[in-house]
């Protein structure tokens, strides 16, 4: 199917808004068919097998099909920040990041621009792009859209935010999130197979499932980790994150989230995962809930 057709009645994400983004209409993601991004630069704060010492070539796209109330990147997920770029320009950005020594091309919040990103990847591959492509997403994906990416994405770096449908509805307006995320991870694993690393520990292929612990919601985290591990075992790597940073602007109606995760809460989750048998995983140590995880979305690398 042509790119234009995919944007004409948009069903790229599970919300299936069916708006005509080619005509300037905007669905839940807040974006029309033009590509907008807020930053393209080396990024050093992903999992070690993604960033390594050289950095991941991260392109942060504007807009989002999930838009959680606690989003750390709210300035771009809401579409307030961003620079318009074309498909050829995006391909050039990928190649420039490779020239800068990026370990991979890290596509951050790409779902609503997937057809254009795929076209840019194909063009960049023709022009010499050889490093892995990382699809860094919320987990709220449609299998049909992911199937379109098969063979072009090497690594899926996906969230699995909720096992609890009520929490998914309250914080992300997506009660079906657990079901859609489960379907999505299944497709991701089908595409990549078991993880592959090079001699330096850099991931070349595979699936990393991230879970961000929310304050006061250790049970949801335990249920999520249990589901992911019992479903896919060592076919995925599980990344347990304690970097939750309360963003006051989005939490006026969610006072229970207006604090950081405690060390005790996070240790409970890590101990649970270890007792469950998780071996292929990542944990965060020290005070990670800080501004270094939220880069400046100032258009760097796009103009």
Automatic annotation (TrEMBL):
Cofactor(s) the protein requires to work: [4Fe-4S] cluster
GO molecular function: catalytic activity; iron-sulfur cluster binding; metal ion binding
Keywords from the UniProt entry: Iron, Iron-sulfur, Metal-binding, S-adenosyl-L-methionine
InterPro entries named in the record: Aldolase_TIM, MJ0674-like, Pyrv-formate_lyase-activ_prd, rSAM, rSAM_sf
Coiled coil regions in record: none
Cofactor note: Binds 1 [4Fe-4S] cluster. The cluster is coordinated with 3 cysteines and an exchangeable S-adenosyl-L-methionine.
Occurrences of domain Radical SAM core (ranges): 60-190
UniProt binding sites for [4Fe-4S] cluster: 64, 68, 71
Entry superkingdom: Bacteria
Protein name as it appears in the record: Radical SAM protein
Organism encoding this protein: Candidatus Limivivens intestinipullorum
């Amino acid at each position: 199917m042509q790119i234009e057709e995919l944007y004409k009645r948009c069903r790229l994400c599970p919300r299936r808004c069916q708006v005509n983004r080619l005509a300037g209409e905007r669905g839940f993601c807040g974006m029309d068919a033009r590509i907008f991004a807020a930053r393209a630069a080396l990024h050093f704060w992903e999992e070690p097998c993604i960033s390594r010492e050289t950095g991941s070539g991260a392109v942060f796209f504007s807009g989002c099909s999930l838009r959680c109330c606690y989003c750390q990147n709210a300035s771009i997920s809401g579409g307030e920040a961003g620079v318009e770029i074309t498909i050829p320009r995006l391909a050039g950005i990928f190649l420039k990041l490779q020239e800068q020594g990026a370990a991979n091309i890290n596509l951050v919040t790409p779902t609503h621009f997937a057809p254009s990103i795929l076209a840019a990847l194909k063009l960049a591959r023709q022009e010499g792009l050889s490093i892995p492509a990382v699809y860094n997403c919320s987990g709220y994906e449609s299998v049909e859209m992911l199937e379109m990416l098969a063979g072009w994405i090497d690594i899926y770096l996906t969230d699995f935010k909720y096992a609890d449908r009520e929490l998914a509805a309250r914080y992300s307006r997506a009660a079906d999130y657990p079901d859609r995320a489960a379907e999505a991870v299944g497709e991701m694993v089908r595409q990549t197979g078991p993880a592959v690393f090079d001699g330096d520990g850099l991931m070349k292929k595979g699936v990393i499932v991230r879970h961000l612990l929310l304050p006061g919601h250790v049970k949801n985290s335990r249920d999520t980790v249990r589901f992911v591990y019992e479903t896919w075992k060592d076919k995925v790597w599980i990344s347990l994150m304690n970097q939750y940073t309360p963003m006051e602007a989005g939490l006026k109606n969610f006072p229970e989230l207006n604090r950081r995760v405690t060390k005790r809460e996070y240790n409970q989750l890590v101990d649970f995962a270890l007792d469950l048998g998780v071996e292929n995983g990542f944990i965060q140590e020290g005070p990670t809930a800080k501004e270094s995880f939220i880069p400046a979305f100032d258009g760097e690398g796009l103009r």
